[in-house]
C-alpha cells in the first residue's frame, strides 16, 4: 500500500508539474504578442463584414488570462473620413474561457475601462442617427456572425471623454472632460440598466460643468426608471426619481405612448439657477436667482395628478396641487389646481416690476400672501384668489375666455378689506382705507381694452379724516368713450354724487361731468386744517384737452349756504372758471363771491406762463441769479391784460405761504412782448392789507411798471401811498414812496409819520450802478421828534457791492448827539471802517425803536466800532460806555463793554456799577455791580450780512454780581409784583453750541418778595442753581410778617431754556397764604394762614398738578358772588340815585363793530391741574359770602369743621366736602339777622360758587305795634337762606310771641313747616323798618289795605335785597321789578316805591314801558305830610346813549312848605329827548362828553 501510495503521489506531482509547465508555456506564448495580430484581423473582419460602418483598430493587446486592450479603436460611417466614435484605448477584463462557448450571446466583463473616448452623434433629416447607420447589417438575411444579445460589466469607467449630439435643425450639445464610473452595467437589445457612482463633464459652448452626478438607470421594453438621480453643477443641484410603466424608449418615445403609460415623478429637491437654465432655455421674464422645486406627480400624461408641489425663490413660495389632463396637448389641456398658502416676496416683485413706483409699492406691501384655485382650459378658465398684503387684503374670482381673433373676455367679482388706496397712488403723506366689493367685466385684444365695465360698492372707507360709510363707483368703457358715476356718503350726512363722460377718440380728449356735494369738508379729505370747509351745491365741468396746450375748460358750481376756510358763501352763490384757447388768443377767468380774476391775451396759455417766467428771469438778472432763464428771441409780439378783485382773501389763504395775509382791493395791469422787450405794468389799490399783527396797511395804493430786455431791467417805476400802517405794533401814517430806475440810475424818496411819538421820517436818495457797484447818495434823511430833529449831514454817500459796503462821511445827528459811519466794511476787500455813537441820550431810544417800554430808560451812551486788518483776517473792535443808565426804578449805573472779533471768535469784557438808597436812607450804596467776560465762536460777515454761532465750537461766558437788585425778579416772574434786597448771582456758560453747559447760581438773603395775587410779602432765603436742563431750588426758606416759616425745594426741568416740567414740594407752619384788602370789586379779600407737610406741585408745565393736604390755621376770608359789584336794574329810582358798577357787564350795541382779533392769554391758574388737594381747619375761622356789594347783602359767619377735597381739570374746579356755619350774621340793606348754628355749605364735585347753602337760618327780635289796636307783640323775624352761593334764595317769616311754629307766605320756610300768612314778606319788611304790622295775621282782613296804597317811600334810604324783588318779578315775568323802602328821620318806615319795566315784544328791545308807584304808610298819625302818585313812561332807544321819551304822571304833589291830600290829583303829560352817560366823577363825565373819550378807551384797553 505504501508503494502504491508513493507511486500515486509521484504520478500526481509529475502530472501537475507538466500541466503547470504547459500553462506557463501557453501564457508565455499568448502574452508574447504572437496572436495579437490574429485577434485584430479577426475583429476587423467580423465587424466590417457584418455592418455597413467600418471598424478601424490600431492594435489589440491580449493579456491572459483576463485582459484585452483595444488601442485607438474607431467606428466610421461608410466612406467617412472622421470616426463617429473612437477611443484612445479600451481595456476589457473578462474570462477568456467564456469565448470557448459554441455561440457567444453574452459578453460579461469584470471591468471595462475606456480612455479618451470621442463620440459624435448626428441626426439626419430622415430622423436616423449616424450610429444607427453604422450598425446597420450589410446582409440582413444572413445569419448573424456576432449574435451578441447582452452586455454586462461589473465596473465601467470612462476617462477624459467627449460626447457630441447634433439634432437636426437644432444647436449641438457637446460634452467634454467626460468621466463616468458605473457599476452593474447591463445592456441588452431592449434593456439597459446600471448604477452611476460618479459622473462629471463640461459643456464649453454653454459654460456648464457637472461637478457630480450619480443615480440608477433601468430601461426596458416595459418600464423606464431613473432613480436617485443626483446632479450638481456650480450653481444648481437636482435630486429626483422618474418611473414610467410601459414606456419602451428603444422603440421611440411618442406622445401617444406617454398618454397611456403611468408615470410617477418624485422631486426631492431641484435647485435651478437662472444663469445656467438660460443657457438651455431662455426665459427673460424670469427674475435671476435660484429656484427650488419640490413635489410629486403621478398618473398618466392624459390624467396627471399633481401631488403637493412647491416652488421657492428666496422668501417667495408657490404651493399647489390638483390634476392636469392632457398636459402634452395644448389644444386638449385642462387643469384643476388648488393653490395652497403661497407668498410672493417684495424682493421677487421688485425684480419683476420695471416701474420704480410699483417697486416701492411692492416693498410697502411686504409681499403678497395668497391662496386660491385655477380651473379650466387654455381657451376658458376660472381663477379664484384670496390675498393679503400689508396694505390690504381681499379676494377675487373671474372667468377668462379666449375669443376668435386672439381676443379675450373677462367677467368677475372682487372684495377688498382694509386696503390703503393712497399707497397705490404713491401718496406718502396721506392715510386712507377702503373696504368694499364689486364686479368687473370686459374684453381686450391686440389693440388693448375694447370694452370694460366696473362697479364697486363701498362698505366703509376713509381718506385722511374723511370717512365714507357707503357708496358706489361705476365705470363703463365702450370703445373710446368712458362713462363714470359715483355716489358716496359719509356718516355726518355728507355726500358726493357725480356722473360724467370722457371721450378718448381724439388727440385732445373731451369730457363733461356734473353732480352735487353735501357737507364736503376739504380739510378732512386733504388732512390740512387750513382747508376746513362745508361745501354744499351743484357743480358742472365741461372741457377738452388734458395738457396746457390743448386745454379748454368751463366749470361752475352753484352753492347752497357753504363755507371755506373762514369765508361763508351766501345762498345761490356761484363759482365759475373758464379757459378758452384758440389759434391766436386765450383767456382765463375765475369768478366767485370772494374774488374775481381774469386774463386775456393774443397768445396761448403756455405763452402766458412763459411771461411769468420771463418776468422772474428779468428780476433774477438784477439780483445776480445764475439760474435765470434767458429771454426768448425772434418771437412775434403778444399782449396780456389781467385784473384781480379781492373782496375777501379767506378762500385763497390756504394756498398762500403767508397764512395770516389779509387783503381787500384790486390789482390790474398788462404784460406785453414786443421788439425783444418785456413790458409789465400794474396798479394796485387796497383799503385793507395786513400780514399777521406785525403788519397792517389801510387805504394803500401802488402803481408800477418795468421794462426788461436781454441785458436785464431797462426802466422801472414804482409809487405807493398808505393812509395808515402798523409795523410790529408801531403805528405809522401818511406813508409815501416813490422810486424810478432808468439808465442804471435809481431815484427814491420815502415819507412817513409816526403819531405814537409825534414823529416824522423823511428820506430821499439817489443810486447809480457802475459795473457791479451801486453808488448811493443820501439826499435827505430826517427824523423829526418832539425833542428835535435828527438829520443826515450833507455830502454823505455809500457804495454797495456784493462783497463790501463803503461809507463816505455818513453822519446822522441832532445837536451834540450823533451817529457817524466812515470807511469800507467788508471781510474780503482791503480797507478799514469806523462807526461812532456820541452822547446818545437813551431817553430818546423809544423814538428810534418805537417801543413805549423804552420810555423808562435814561442815561447816556458813547460807543465806537472799528474794523481793520488784511482781507480774510479782519478784526472788529467795539468799545461802549454808558453813564447814569436806569430802567424804570432799576439803577444800572455806569456801563463799560469792550469786545473784539477776530477769526470767527468774539472776546468781550463787561462791567456795570449802579447805586441806590437803602432802607430809606439818603446814602447811596453800590447795587447791580456786574462783571463778566467771555469768548464766543461767531461767524460775522459784513457784506452780505451774516451773524451765526457755529456748532461744536467751544465757548466761555462768565458773569457775576454780588449786589444784583432783587427787582429783576418781578420782570422774570410776573407773579411777583414787588421785590426788595439784593440777590448775589453768578452765571457761567461753557461747552459748545447748540447745547452749551449753563450754570446759574443765585443766593437769596433776606430778600423780600410780594406775591401779586395774594398780596403776601415773604422774606426769602436759600440758593437757586440752574443748568440748561433744570433749575434746582435747594430748600428755599420763606417767612411772613409774623415770622411763620415754610420751605420749598425741588426742580424745574428745561428744554431750550424754556420750563417744561416741574417737581416742587412745600411744607410750612402757620404761614400767611393770603392777605388782601377789599378792593371794592368781585375779587376775594381777607387773610388766610395754613400748615402743610406734603404739598406737591409737579408734572408737565402744559398741565402741572398740585396735590397734598393743607390745614387752614386761621382765616378771615370774604368771597363775592359773580356780578356782586353790579347793581340790578332800578327803574324809576334813577331820578334820585344813579348806580355805576365798578365793572359793568358789556351791553350789546346795535351797530356792527369791526371784529377784534381774539387773543388767548393764560396764567398759571388756567393750566394748573389740582388732584385730591385736602383742605381742613384746625380752629374756627371767619368767612363772608357777599351776594350784592351795593345793597350790602352778605353772610358773615364763623366757620368750622371744614373738610374739602379740591380737584381741577382744565378750567373747572371740583370741590367735594362741606363746612359748618356756627354763628354770624346775615345782613342786607341797613339791618342784620343773627345766624343759628345749624347752617352748612356743601359741595358735591361743584365749583366753589356752586356750593349749596343748607339749613342757614337767621333771626332778629323786634317789638311790633298794631296801629289800629295799639297792641304790641314780641316778634322774632326769620329768614331761611338756601340755593347756592352764586344764586342764593332767601325766604322770610316770623315767630309771633311764643308760637313755636313760624309764619311765612308758603307752607315751608327752609326745611321747617310754617303757618300760612300771604302777607308775611310785607309784614317782615314793615316790622324791620318801622316796627309796626303791615297786617296782623290774627286780625281781620277787612281793613281794605292793599300793598300799593298802604306804604310810601323816602328816597335815599337803605335798599332792600334783590331777593324780595324777585318774589314778584319771577311771578309776573317782567323785565324787572323792584320794591324799595325808606325810613324817616326817626327811623320809622316812611314809604315804599314800587317800580317795574317791560320790553315791548317785536321791537328788538328798542321800546320799553316803565311804571312807578309811590305811596305813604297807611294809618300814619299825620296824613298831611305825604304824597302819592304813579307814572308811566314809554322810551325809544335811538342809540345806546340817546333816547326819545313820552311820559304821563298822576298823583298828589307835596313840598317842604305845605302838604295837602285833599286837593284833586294832578295829571301831567310830556315828551323829552335824553342823553345818558355813566360816570364816577364829574371830570369823567365832562371828559366823556367833550373829547376825553380817546383816553378812556386807551385806559379800558390797558385794563
From TrEMBL:
Q: How does it sit in the membrane?
A: Single-pass membrane protein
The yes or no answer to whether the keyword Membrane is present is yes
Q: Name one GO cellular component term.
A: plasma membrane
Q: Where on the tree of life does the source sit, at the highest rank?
A: Bacteria
Q: Which Pfam families match?
A: TamB
Subcellular location field = Membrane
BP GO annotations: protein secretion; regulation of protein targeting to membrane
Where is the chain membrane-spanning?
A: 7-30
Tell me the ranges covered by the Translocation and assembly module TamB C-terminal domain, including all copies.
1038-1479
Q: Please indicate if the UniProt record lists Transmembrane helix as a keyword.
A: yes
Alphabetical keyword list: Membrane, Transmembrane, Transmembrane helix
Identify the InterPro entries for this entry.
AsmA-related, TamB_C
The entry's protein name is Translocation and assembly module TamB C-terminal domain-containing protein
